[in-house]
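1st attempt posting a full record on here, be nice pls
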Amino acid sequence: MELIKEMVSTSPNVTEVRKAMAELREAGFYTNIMQYIDDEHQNHAWYNGCVAEVFCEGYVCEVSAVGRVAMSVQESGKVIAKTDTTNLSADVLSDLGMYIPDDVVMCSVLCGENPGENEGLSVVVYEHNRFEWRLFDIGTRQEFRYSDDTMHEFDTVRLCDCLEPNLLEDLVFGLVKEV
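the predicted structure (as tokens):
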């Protein structure tokens, strides 16, 4: 865990991430980053499982990438690289980073475009995940939930957008007041 925090604090590609963490601290939140994040890899498809925990006034909000990511890169119809997060050790960046290096290309792929077309490559997306949140009372570990599970999805594909202080305050205090 400390290694991940060190990577986030020293990487030259984390200006947006640093800004998001600073804004959370200013707003009174404490964060526990569970996976390496940087500015070039904000899309949900890079992540698998819990990405961050955000603590505020006795509550913790877990931000997680939920669902399976299954993609392959093909050259002339032959699979040359693939990833499938059903295998918990799969890492999309490690598996496909040579062909899908950053969010610009990832977003193109997820939108059905083929950024490798000029090189004779195609990317096939079988499934992709999404960001969701879960809210718990730290003392009792009681989970607060809306009756409609789709309400737990973030309406964004970018991680830093999920860590926006006003959004998290609305989630924490809005849901707790409802229950």
